[in-house]
Automatic annotation (TrEMBL):
<dbReference type="InterPro" id="IPR032284">
    <property type="entry name" value="RecQ_Zn-bd"/>
</dbReference>
<dbReference type="InterPro" id="IPR018982">
    <property type="entry name" value="RQC_domain"/>
</dbReference>
<dbReference type="Pfam" id="PF00270">
    <property type="entry name" value="DEAD"/>
</dbReference>
<dbReference type="InterPro" id="IPR036390">
    <property type="entry name" value="WH_DNA-bd_sf"/>
</dbReference>
<dbReference type="GO" id="GO:0003677">
    <property type="term" value="F:DNA binding"/>
</dbReference>
<dbReference type="GO" id="GO:0016787">
    <property type="term" value="F:hydrolase activity"/>
</dbReference>
<keyword id="KW-0378">Hydrolase</keyword>
<dbReference type="InterPro" id="IPR014001">
    <property type="entry name" value="Helicase_ATP-bd"/>
</dbReference>
<feature type="domain" description="Helicase C-terminal">
    <location>
        <begin position="216"/>
        <end position="363"/>
    </location>
</feature>
<dbReference type="GO" id="GO:0043138">
    <property type="term" value="F:3'-5' DNA helicase activity"/>
</dbReference>
<feature type="domain" description="HRDC">
    <location>
        <begin position="513"/>
        <end position="593"/>
    </location>
</feature>
<dbReference type="Pfam" id="PF00570">
    <property type="entry name" value="HRDC"/>
</dbReference>
<keyword id="KW-0234">DNA repair</keyword>
<dbReference type="GO" id="GO:0006310">
    <property type="term" value="P:DNA recombination"/>
</dbReference>
<protein>
    <recommendedName>
        <fullName>DNA helicase RecQ</fullName>
        <ecNumber>5.6.2.4</ecNumber>
    </recommendedName>
</protein>
<dbReference type="InterPro" id="IPR002121">
    <property type="entry name" value="HRDC_dom"/>
</dbReference>
<dbReference type="GO" id="GO:0006260">
    <property type="term" value="P:DNA replication"/>
</dbReference>
Length: 705
């Protein structure tokens, strides 16, 4: 069975290796065991049920509560020439009848159904006559009343299994199952522990960041500017804020769509579809957006404010990077966010105490100094907590600490002198020395703190006050117009017993793309046109990851194109020719011949690429030989070795450089405040030195990992 499953993976999906857990799930189902797969979003659950269904005869019944996801899945299968259909309330009566008739004849390999449909006698009669390869319960947590999204109709769907003449293997798939929910699913669907596969919640391609005290609109705008060709979602807590951000971004020339529950159904649909079709790249939305949206190439999710709890945050942020490509999740935190949430909790019907506790844990996420991913995984009681992620803002220590004690004392003493009776705006005005009439009205211009921060803008001062609130040095009250009060921490700072070290995000360049972005744009454009013509979402044709690989390797023939990860024979037949044409034209238009490389044959996933290089080096091969054998550049190979060294492997770094070279590199560094690029270092050195040596010196001295 292994070889065939492998073949399907390659032919249909264009992948050489299964991701963690996939092969186990497929094997259990092929052995006719009921199976539960708990894998994170983007972990590749679809392949877990699609591969066995393609290996078996008959129709696979996929039960899914998310109507929009069904269409995406059916589109994706149809794009691979696999017969698939869905039955749900969006179908017109005639379409429904046609689909049912086709289904009755076993015309579909996949039939997606909404749980409610299973109570329909006509539907039941149809499937009783069908040969069913498997029944998959997607989003299986909805079956459990302990789940955060319990749907009673989904639970009744379980009884369908007793009505079938023969019991096919049953699968349950979910990304979010607490132990209690998992137990419930297993009991209801008769799945035993031996056939439960858990791969943990960690999403290795996501980079989490918490940013405090930023001018949020500015931050968002700058962030988007650096990622003009990428797609992202910005979540804001209220409709009003969504409208405001939407206007702001469009005014700045960023093509933006918006989505919230106050818009008409038609407007929401239009917004959603322009986002899915890549017509706009940014979506500003409340949390009403996203459920059932399976856009795999979302490169970033920004949160304008604190979400209510970690569950909501992980779900929303997790909409980034479903295709496995590196993606960013940034939470912009300010102390004020908390008021709105407290208000919502007070006015909700749920258990207030429990909600407050969850909010507190959400705030702790913003204040923790340790790895953000580890914090989340602990929160979700993940049984497989990996090492610290090495990617999040805490791991990378991307903040510069600046001593702001003096400024903090100015603010705090001003708050004190104003008798803790005013909000951030007025405090900022006093510090700035504003002529606002309210200052006169309250006689605040006579305070000794009036105008002591006149060199700063009012906006800056307000921002700083928000930072002090985020750090719980100031405590705004829970009123409609919050008043600033001092905490014990503030008192200590005023007495000079404690310092305020403000964390400021270092200006980081976004990494330079290692592929031609113009070509990527051309391929994206072609994909968009094809998608529009066929009424498909673009990423169903080829993923962003596959397009980037095409730009890196610029294949010349179908054969070469099939070597690209993510391009299988099925979609190659459908769309390959047109993409090849663009690639060939591109190559002809280049004055310098394009350095095409045969794509790296995908390595076995068990051994990471850098360790393959390391092992070869340890066996005595030279950098150049390894590079030749593995179709890499020698510099990539030496980077592999250094990465292995960072992983704790033994490596004598000094073999790569001489003492003289080390001194020369370090001398160059002394002249720079920030680490220069390798090329600059090389140019400024007074002894000859290659890049391997420079890098090795940097690693040896702990400057680079
Ligand atoms: P989930 O349903 O678990 O959120 P999907 O099934 O949508 O995840 O898969 C997410 C992405 O991962 C898709 O783009 C899919 O093509 C890709 N993927 C799945 N399995 C593999 C694999 N074995 N190798 C590479 N990519 C994969």
């Amino acid at each position: 069975m292994e070889a065939t499953a492998q073949q399907i993976l390659k032919d249909y999906y264009g992948y050489d290796t299964f991701r963690t857990g996939q092969a186990d799930v497929i094997e259990y189902v092929m052995q006719h065991h009921n199976t539960l797969a708990i894998m994170p979003t983007g972990g590749g659950k679809s392949i877990c049920y699609q591969v066995p269904a393609l290996l078996n005869q008959g129709t696979a019944l996929i039960i899914s509560p998310l109507i929009s996801l069904m269409k995406d899945q059916v589109d994706a299968l149809t794009a691979m020439n696999i017969p698939a259909a869905y039955v749900n309330s969006t179908l017109e009566a005639a379409e429904m009848e046609w689909t049912m008739q086709q289904a009755e004849h076993g015309a579909f390999t996949f039939l997606y159904v909404a749980p409610e449909r299973l109570e329909n006698p006509r539907f039941l009669q149809t499937i009783r006559h069908l040969s069913i390869s498997l029944v998959a319960f997607d989003e299986a947590h909805c079956i459990s009343q302990w789940g955060h999204d319990f749907r009673p109709s989904y639970r009744s769907a379980v009884s369908i299994l007793d009505k079938l003449p023969e019991r096919p293997p049953v699968m349950a798939l979910t990304a979010t199952a607490t132990p209690q929910v998992a137990d419930d699913i297993k009991r209801l669907l008769q799945i035993d522990e031996d056939h439960t596969v858990r791969t943990g919640f960690a999403r290795e391609n996501l980079r989490f960041q918490v940013v405090k005290g930023a001018d949020k609109e500015r931050y968002i705008f700058d962030f988007i500017q650096k990622r003009k060709h990428e797609t992202g979602i910005i979540y804001a807590p209220t409709r009003k804020l969504v409208d405001r951000l939407f206007q702001f971004l469009n005014r700045q020339g960023v093509k933006t769509a918006k989505y919230h529950a106050g818009m008409s159904e038609a407007d929401r649909q239009a917004a959603q579809s322009s986002f899915i079709q890549d017509e706009v790249s940014v979506m500003v939305a409340t949390n009403a957006f996203g459920m059932g949206i399976d856009k795999s190439n979302v490169r970033y999710v920004l949160h304008y404010a604190l979400p209510m709890n970690m569950e909501a945050y992980y779900q929303e942020a997790g909409r980034a990077g479903r295709d496995g490509e590196p993606s960013d999740c940034v939470l912009l935190f300010s102390g004020q966010d908390v008021h709105l949430l407290k208000f919502l909790i007070e006015n909700s019907a749920s258990d207030t105490q429990a909600e407050y506790q969850k909010l507190q844990q959400m705030m702790n996420y913003c204040h923790t100094q340790s790895c953000l991913q580890t914090y989340m995984l602990n929160y979700f009681k993940d049984p497989h907590i990996p090492e610290d992620c090495g990617r999040c803002s805490n791991c990378l220590n991307e903040f510069e600490k600046t001593d702001m004690t003096k400024e903090a004392q100015m603010v705090l003493s001003c708050v004190k002198r104003m008798n803790e009776r005013f909000g951030a705006v007025l405090v900022a005005k006093v510090l700035k020395g504003s002529k606002d009439k309210r200052i006169k009205q309250f006689g605040l211009e006579t305070l000794s703190t009036y105008g002591i921060m006149k060199n700063r803008t009012e906006k800056d001062i307000t921002q700083f006050i928000h930072y002090l609130s985020a750090e719980m040095i100031l405590a705004p009250t829970d009123d409609k117009y919050p008043v600033l009060t001092l905490t014990d921490e503030a008192v200590r700072i005023l007495k000079g017993e404690k310092k305020v070290m403000m964390q400021i995000v270092k200006a980081t360049d976004t990494a330079e793309a290692d592929y031609d972005e113009t070509l990527f744009e051309e391929l994206r454009q072609l994909r968009k046109e094809l998608a529009l013509a066929e009424g498909l979402p673009p990423y169903v044709i080829f993923s962003d990851a596959a397009l980037k690989e095409l730009c890196r390797f610029v294949p010349h023939s179908e054969q070469e194109m099939l070597e690209i990860k993510g391009i299988g024979e099925r979609r190659m037949e459908q769309y390959g020719e047109q993409f090849l044409q663009v690639l060939v034209q591109y190559e002809q238009s280049q004055t310098v011949p394009v350095q095409t490389k045969k794509p790296l044959l995908q390595e076995k996933q068990d051994t990471p690429s850098h360790l393959i290089s390391y092992e070869a080096f340890e066996r005595g091969s030279s950098l150049d030989d390894i590079a030749k054998d593995r179709d890499l550049t020698p510099l990539t190979v030496s980077n592999h070795l250094f990465k292995a060294y960072a992983d704790g492997k033994a490596l004598d770094l000094e073999q790569f450089f001489s003492e003289e070279q080390e001194t020369a590199v370090l001398d160059v560094l002394k002249q720079h405040d920030e680490l220069p690029r390798l090329r600059e270092i090389k140019e400024q050195m007074d002894v000859p030195c290659d890049y391997h040596a420079i890098r090795a010196v940097l690693v040896h001295n702990g400057i680079l990992e």
